[in-house]
Amino acid sequence: MMLWLAPTPLVVASKSAARRAMLADAGLPIEPTEADIDERAVESRGGPVSPEQAALVLAREKARVAAARWPGHYVLGADQTLALGEKRFNKPENRAAAREQLKALSGRTHALHSAVAVAKDGRVIFGHVETARLTMRRLTDRFLDAYLDTAGDAVMASVGAYQLERLGIHLFERIDGDHFTILGLPLFPLLAFLRREGCLAG
Fold this sequence. Notes:
- GO terms for molecular function: nucleoside triphosphate diphosphatase activity.
- It is found in: Cytoplasm.
- Belongs to the Maf family.
- Nucleoside triphosphate pyrophosphatase. May have a dual role in cell division arrest and in preventing the incorporation of modified nucleotides into cellular nucleic acids.
- The protein is α/β, with parallel strands linked by helices.
- It has one domain: Maf protein (Alpha-Beta Complex), CATH 3.90.950.
- 34% of the residues lie in helices and 26% in strands.
- The protein contains 7 helices and 7 strands, in the order βαβααββαββαβαα.
- Strands 1, 2, 3, 4, 5, 6 and 7 form a 7-stranded mixed β-sheet that branches.
- A hairpin with a 2-residue loop joins strand 3 (75-84) and strand 4 (87-89).
- The longest helix has 17 residues, at 51-67.
- The radius of gyration is 17 Å and the shape is globular.
- The protein starts with 9 loop residues before the first strand and ends in a 6-residue tail after the last helix.
- The mean pLDDT is 92.
């Protein structure tokens, strides 16, 4: 008996290599796709939202938009927001922006809100968001230079200017939260949903 029971692969509307690897490592057959949306426009539709709500709104919209091109398929959308209190951070545009962001987070605890949504035939049928809290150690200028030199352009690939599973681990002194949530996908709730749907062996 196969673990994956659905007749078609799970369509994953995410550019994140970490998310795709998580799903593949869990034994799910995936079909990568993209959902090109104007994230800031989507967030502003319903007025101001919290960083946690923003992650879920964006995940739902990505799933919905991609599902329109994949009839009959389960389509996953995901998003992650980073907040220091109510202040939101986006992916840094360059090294200088990454350095400024890391200095703002230095010695403080920030929240990562990771959301996942699943749509089918144009309708969102599942959504979930989880939060992890990460405390950075106090970062010296000397360390920041070394970190940025070593990490290179990778600091611009994620919302926090770090990948925790790589060099980003050197930034932290404490982490409270689920590992998969930190990597950008609440995997346990997603797998539970797929089992309820009969897509996965129970």
